[in-house]
Amino acid sequence: MEADAAWLPPEVFRPLGSRRVLVRGTGPLVDTVAAEVADACRRHGGAVLSGAPDDADLVLEADGGSGEGYTLARRDGTTTVTAEGDRGLLHGLFHVVRLGEDAFRGDRAPEEHRPALALRMLDHWDNVAVHPVMGQVERGYAGGSLFWADGRARDGLDRVRAYARLIAACGVNAVAVNNVNVHATEARLLTDRIGEVARLADTLRPYGIRTHLSVTFAAPVVLGGLETADPLDARVRAWWAEATARVYAAIPDFGGYVVKADSEGQPGPFAYGRTHADGANALAGALAPHGGTVHWRAFVYDHRQDWRDRSTDRARAAHDHFVPLDGAFAPNAVLQVKHGPMDFQVREPVSPLIGAMPRTRLAIEVQATQEYTGQQRHVCWLGPMWSEVLRFRPDGERAAGRLADALVAVSNAGDDPFWTGHPLAQANLYTFGRLAWDPGAEPGAVLDEWIALTHPGAPARLAEGLHAVLDSSWHTYEKYTAPLGVGFMVQPGHHYGPGVDGYEYSPWGTYHFADRDGVGVDRGAARGTGFAAQYAEPWATVYESPDTCPDELLLFFHHVPYGHVLRSGKTVIQHIYDTHFEGVAEAEEARRVWAGLAGLVAPARHARVADLFEEQVRCAREWRDQVNSYFLRKSGVPDERGRTVY
Ligand code: GCW
């Protein structure tokens, strides 16, 4: 099956492609824009103009700069995009596509558009060689890798080019092409296999996507034959400098490195008694002369914890490790922090590290691949979750301040014909790009865009149906899984489906502490791990007390009795029962709404989603029954509405 057109079906180019269009400027991306315009005009009967713009309907013009901004205006029957440079022109083109016929109506006072975050990146957890446990794509739910097959970079890169075009159209400008867990084969992409990365970079470049590579901190040892990877050792630094120079010889616009160090078994600076700033700066130093950046992940915690030890709190780890290093990182080092303190759960507070390192460049990492949110078998549109993160103000002020320099998502795309396994998970990929461009955007409006682009000319009934299925799908998922921010309760290893005690006695630091009296983790300063005190005010105080802590995070911050009354007025135990029944009912309702959209959606697409809804409803019931039964058995408190609990 040919790859799905996703949000760029040919039809969305009709308004532009049926007009008289002039493209002006120089630069490689101007050629891309000109080719897009020529293709659209050929399909839809428009004309590509040259020379004087007098009779043009649309003028796309790039100055010689390198910025990504552009100005959109319309006067006297001509729409103009005046871009700072060729990169901005590409974004301007896709803006016109999004506007459709509206781009050619009435007058439009000049509007300036510019991305809020300079770097908008997708990280692929793709392995080159199929990993015995993790497969080809770690936590991948969309088939194999787009980039790698049969142990090397794919020969045919048409899908990669189509991917670059799709992600550029929603604003993404960088991709990391391999897993942050760097295994032996993948380590060599940095050195003798850089040619394969260069071919990918050549394919991504025409759409303004810069290529990044995940590297192992131990590269000087495993690739360079040195006996140490100590970041302060002169030979190690020289090795990185040379290796990096060779990378730039192959890929002149290479973006930089992504590093997972001292995390879940990956090597790092701790082995040499060095700090993470020492580690990051060694690589940053090698990249600096070439204009590259190192993305250093803050996901550093003890994954060999003793579950008996109540004093170690994984949630504290990133802040404990990194805040003391604020100001010590090189200017071209970016600390990449997961949006929550744990690990991409359906509900977590925003990481306290965000806002706590004013002298450090920060990237916020979200997970488009739905490891903990239904693995692309369940509908779970994450736009509202990400928007909450991006609107969070560490000091409680609503005023806009600098939250981060970059937004990164672990990609949910693979070689699946629908790109993302679940066709509706395309909405997550699209929404990510748009929110990275404009973190203040209304997620509902972004979803409107996605719906309109993906289903051009769709009747209102389809748009309404898609909203009904997607708008609150995140809350639905939250309702039938782990309650009130407590997290996990998943099957160990693959993380799909319920396993209430799956991680309760494990070394991973992910516990809910349910007993006969209550449930939750005490993370306050007064009687817990002190995690709440890592926040600035007002949040430290808000989270410290169960009386002020938001309901949805109560069990993240507090161990409370089952009879504890939430701010909603319900007891914790009744909330657990109610939400689990509601979550399943909502999933069943979404399945019903989707069934009613048959005939309005392409048959293959409709059938794929319909099949997945069967699995979602099955799994949601399993979650409901296991969670409810577990808490009935622990607490002995029956459901006040007498529903079936096993
Ligand atoms: O969520 C966890 C995943 C790991 C992943 C790790 C990380 C790439 O279960 O598979 O490893 O996070 O973010 O490094």
TrEMBL record:
Residues 420-643 form the Glycosyl hydrolase family 67 C-terminal domain. Residues 112-395 form the Glycosyl hydrolase family 67 catalytic domain. Coiled coil: none annotated. It holds the Pfam family Glyco_hydro_67C. Transmembrane segments: none annotated. Keywords: Hydrolase. GO terms for biological process: xylan catabolic process. The keyword Hydrolase applies. InterPro entries: A-glucoronidase_C_sf (IPR037054), GH (IPR017853), Glyco_hydro_67_C (IPR011099), Glyco_hydro_67_cat (IPR011100), Hex-like_dom2 (IPR029018). GO terms for cellular component: extracellular region. The keyword Hydrolase applies. It comes from the Bacteria. One of its GO terms (molecular function) is alpha-glucuronidase activity. PANTHER family: ALPHA-GLUCURONIDASE A. This is Alpha-glucuronidase. It comes from Streptomyces tagetis.
